[in-house]
Design a protein that fits this description.
By secondary structure, the chain is α/β, with parallel strands linked by helices. The chain has six helices and 17 strands. The protein folds into two domains: 243 residues, QueA-like, CATH 3.40.1780; 79 residues, QueA-like (Thrombin, subunit H, Beta Barrel). 19% of the residues lie in helices and 28% in strands. The strands form three sheets. The chain has a nine-stranded mixed sheet with strand order 2-1-17-16-14-3-12-13-15. 40% of the residues are buried.
């Protein structure tokens, strides 16, 4: 299976550059794979597609203002540092540009020296391990100096950085938003609960995989970057009871989906757990944890479009995407939503 099998042409003007004024006002394409049907709706009506006893799983990760622009202490050259994964002793795995300027011992300062970072290890493809030096509380300093790490296809400035956060996010640690969750409001979640639907949470901190294109020709040769997840006993118990009752589990976002499929793969049932997942889902994979997924429209040749193709079938997904292009849906992080039912 070739990566090129998942390519399609997307007119540039369909890439959403800014979020809508109202979170839930986006359009919603419902993809019913079982009946091979596509329906057009608006996200405000998402509750109509849930039934009493179903469970909606949300990822409550919160995005760090993880993009830092600083300069080398010795040459004053401008350097961008993207925080990816926290390690011990104020050390972070980061993605650095331009990486060739940052070697072991390089010191970068941000905010006139309020924050400094020294490179202590050099990795592949722009990865650097940086040790940070600061006074006070790290996340307060980061909040003052950092920017939201918007994807490279978004070229317009985000006026309100809270619009790159979900309304339910609380666990700080992601380098990118769980963008499927950006469509929800608290009122809309209450409406879903009022239908007798369980609304539960887990955490997966979204990291490097979001920023890495697939560079191999054969899909099977791609390696996913590991991301940290946590699922509570309360959430696991509700998920198990949902399926025991013959009801559906619908995840919000590919991150929540990958987490549940990892747990089922490793344990055979939903259990309280935490760890790292590098599961790569593409056609041929058999979904065992979920019955449907809310997600946005994804990049051509990305691991995410491979993932939804495994859920609903590649031909069906590609045809639905072509219909979305004809109907002028908005694509990617600030774009419209899909509900995919297997």
């Amino acid at each position: 299976m070739k990566v090129s099998d998942f390519d399609f042409h997307l007119p540039e003007e369909l890439i959403a550059q800014t979020p809508l004024a109202e979170r839930s006002a986006s359009r919603l394409m419902v993809m019913d794979a079982k009946n091979n049907e596509v329906k057009h709706d608006v996200f405000t009506n998402i509750a109509d597609y849930f039934q009493p006893g179903d469970t909606l799983l949300l990822n409550d990760t919160k995005v760090m203002p993880a993009r830092l622009i600083g300069e080398k202490v010795d040459t004053k050259a401008s350097i961008e540092v993207l925080l990816l994964k926290q390690q011990e002793n104020d050390c972070w795995e980061t993605l650095v540009k331009p990486a060739k300027r940052v070697k072991v011992g390089t010191v970068i300062e941000f905010g006139d020296g309020r924050l400094k970072a020294e490179c202590i290890e050099v990795g592949d493809m722009g990865i650097r391990i940086m040790k940070f030096l600061y006074e006070g509380i790290f996340y307060e300093v980061l909040d003052a100096l950092g920017e939201m790490p918007l994807p490279p296809y978004i070229t317009e400035k985000l006026d309100d950085k809270d619009r790159y956060q979900t309304v339910f996010g609380k666990e700080v640690g992601s380098a990118a938003a769980s963008t499927a969750g950006l469509h929800f409001t608290l009122d809309l979640l209450d409406e879903i609960r009022a239908k007798g639907v369980n609304v539960v949470f887990m955490t997966l901190h979204i990291g490097l995989g979001t920023f890495r294109p697939v560079k191999v020709e054969d899909v099977k040769d791609h390696e996913m970057h590991a991301e940290f997840y946590q699922v509570s006993k309360e959430t696991a118990d509700i998920l198990n009871q949902t399926h025991a009752n013959g009801k559906r589990i619908i995840t919000c976002g590919t991150s929540a989906t990958r987490t549940l499929e990892t747990i089922i793969r490793d344990h055979g049932t939903f259990v309280e757990s935490e760890g790292w997942t590098d599961i790569f889902i593409y056609p041929g994979f058999e979904y065992k944890a979920i019955d449907g997924m809310i997600t946005n429209f994804h990049l051509p040749k990305s691991t995410l479009i491979m993932m939804i193709s495994a859920l609903a079938g590649k031909e069906f997904i590609m045809e639905a995407y072509q219909e979305a292009i004809r109907e002028r849906y908005r694509f990617f992080s600030f774009g419209d939503a899909t509900l995919i039912l297997k």
